[in-house]
């Protein structure tokens, strides 16, 4: 299969959440980009460069993932490259992230509704 052409290209990733507009605004503060709301149930964040999108989908019965989780379904997370872990941490905490783990080359946070993400250096 190594010589086969790809089936497609990544268009975006989607987060379930209780308030799509609020969570989209949080990630716009983290990553930049432009908000593209569809309705009250869906907001896209079009990342700088205009390609990749992060979608935020309303789930009224939203339950945040458990991190670190040892039971249940596997989860995904974003790794966000930063130039300075300390400077990024200060800004992320101001935006509403919560620091949950700190290592030499990365830090783990939870966004305002509990999705884990990491900053890496």
TrEMBL record:
Gene3D superfamilies: 2,3-Dihydroxybiphenyl 1,2-Dioxygenase, domain 1 (3.10.180.10). It holds the Pfam family Glyoxalase_6. It comes from the Bacteria. CDD domains: VOC (cd06587). InterPro entries: Glyas_Bleomycin-R_OHBP_Dase, Glyoxalase_6. This is Glyoxalase-like domain-containing protein. SUPFAM superfamilies: Glyoxalase/Bleomycin resistance protein/Dihydroxybiphenyl dioxygenase. Residues 13-119 form the Glyoxalase-like domain. PANTHER family: CONSERVED PROTEIN, HYPOTHETICAL FUSION PROTEIN.
């Amino acid at each position: 299969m190594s010589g086969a052409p790809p089936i497609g290209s990544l268009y975006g990733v989607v987060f379930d959440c209780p308030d799509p507009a609020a969570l989209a605004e949080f990630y716009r503060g983290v990553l930049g980009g432009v908000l593209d709301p569809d309705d009250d149930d869906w907001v896209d964040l079009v990342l700088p460069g205009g390609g990749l999108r992060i979608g935020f989908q309303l789930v009224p019965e939203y339950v945040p993932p458990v991190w670190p989780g040892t039971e249940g379904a596997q989860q995904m997370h974003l790794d966000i490259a930063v130039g300075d872990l300390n400077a990024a941490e200060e800004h992320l905490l101001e935006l509403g992230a919560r620091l949950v783990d700190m290592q030499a080359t990365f830090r783990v946070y939870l966004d305002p509704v509990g999705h884990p993400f990491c900053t890496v250096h």
